[in-house]
């Protein structure tokens, strides 16, 4: 409601919440509240309901525990007007607030400090270079037609990582516009975060998407996708190993010749020594980030 550029429509989706949030949101003029009778994993079904109900050409997402700067929509609107016509996804920078009030400023340093437009191979390369997805859900705007064409959030086949899976599919449709200006805050100290839940001990849903993309991609892009699949598989296994032994089936598509050391760690994570090796894996992650 405080945005310097007004939203064309505001849709709030109540995914069977246990507080008075829907009633409070409904008191604001012009706010449409949609209610679901059964909660969906990861909030994916709730977002899909909002997308299908929307009438605007572009959609911005804001999870209940995140925050926009007052110029967020204004910044996004300027990006949309200036971007090439085949741009399907727009992302700005954001800060992270961690438990204890620790704040990481300018998380979007991965954009190289300048606004730029990325074709699909460059988007994957940026993902690999920075060690994480170049866009984040509460700091993006997506073309609604591209969301529908990509198949929306994977509510039926994914409990975790579905956001990244969708952004990857959309990046395969057109360009991604990145702007390093910080317009959002990611609160990682919330008590009810989806990302705080235990990881499923299964193959990351995004790996299925990558395998399908490899069949149609040029050879140079296929190599990038293999590296991305390995990276996401390894990181997902490390997080799973914090609470349980990792199943072999969860990393069955890992290509060992690309990352032999990580492959050795994965073998260990599937053994009774998984906890110590998980700590080794986290150390390798830190060393990789520094390198």
Record the SSE blueprint.
Layout: E1 10-14, H1 21-26, E2 31-35, H2 44-53, E3 58-60, E4 66-68, H3 72-82, E5 87-97, E6 103-104, E7 116-118, H4 120-130, E8 140-143, H5 144-150, H6 162-171, E9 175-187, H7 205-216, H8 219-241, H9 260-269, H10 274-290
Helix pairs in contact: 4-8, 7-8, 8-9, 8-10, 9-10
Describe this entry's structure for a reader.
With 291 residues, the protein is of the alpha+beta class. It folds into 2 domains: 10-196, Alpha-Beta Complex (Spore Coat Polysaccharide Biosynthesis Protein SpsA, Chain A), CATH 3.90.550; 205-290, no CATH class. It is 40% helix and 17% strand. It has 10 helices and 9 strands. The protein has helices at 21-26, 44-53, 72-82, 120-130, 144-150, 162-171, 205-216, 219-241, 260-269, 274-290; strands spanning 10-14, 31-35, 58-60, 66-68, 87-97, 103-104, 116-118, 140-143, 175-187. The strands form 2 sheets. Strands 3, 4, 5, 6, 7, 8 and 9 form a 7-stranded mixed β-sheet that branches. It has a two-stranded parallel ribbon with strand order 1-2. The protein is globular and about 55 Å long. The model has no long low-confidence stretch (mean pLDDT 88). GO terms for molecular function: glycosyltransferase activity. Residues 2-98 form the Glycosyltransferase 2-like domain. It comes from Novosphingobium lindaniclasticum LE124.
């Amino acid at each position: 409601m405080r945005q310097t550029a007004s939203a064309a429509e505001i849709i709030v989706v109540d995914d069977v919440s246990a507080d008075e949030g829907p009633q409070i949101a409904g008191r604001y003029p012009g706010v449409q509240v949609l209610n679901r009778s059964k909660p969906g994993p990861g909030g994916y079904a709730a977002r899909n309901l909002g997308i299908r109900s929307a009438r605007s050409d572009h959609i911005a997402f804001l999870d209940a525990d995140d925050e926009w700067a007052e110029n967020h929509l204004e910044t996004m609107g300027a990006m949309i007007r200036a971007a090439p016509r085949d741009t399907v996804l727009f992302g700005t920078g954001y800060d992270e607030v961690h438990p204890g009030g620790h704040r990481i400023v300018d998380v979007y340093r991965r954009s190289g400090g300048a606004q730029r437009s990325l074709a699909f191979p460059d988007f994957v390369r940026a993902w690999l270079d920075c060690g994480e997805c170049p866009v984040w859900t509460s700091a993006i705007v997506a073309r609604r037609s591209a969301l529908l064409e990509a198949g929306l959030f994977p509510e039926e086949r994914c409990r975790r990582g579905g956001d990244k899976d969708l952004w990857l599919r959309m990046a395969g449709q057109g360009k991604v516009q990145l702007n390093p200006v910080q317009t959002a805050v990611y609160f990682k100290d919330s008590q009810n975060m989806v990302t705080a839940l235990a990881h499923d001990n299964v193959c990351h849903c995004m790996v299925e998407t990558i395998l399908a993309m490899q069949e149609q991609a040029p050879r140079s892009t296929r190599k990038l996708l293999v590296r991305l699949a390995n990276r996401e598989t390894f990181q997902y296994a490390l997080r799973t190993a914090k609470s349980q032994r990792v199943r072999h089936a969860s990393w069955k598509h890992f290509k060992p010749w690309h990352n032999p050391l990580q492959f050795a760690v994965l073998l260990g994570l599937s053994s009774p020594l998984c906890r110590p090796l998980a700590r080794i894996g986290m150390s390798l992650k830190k060393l990789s980030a520094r390198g």
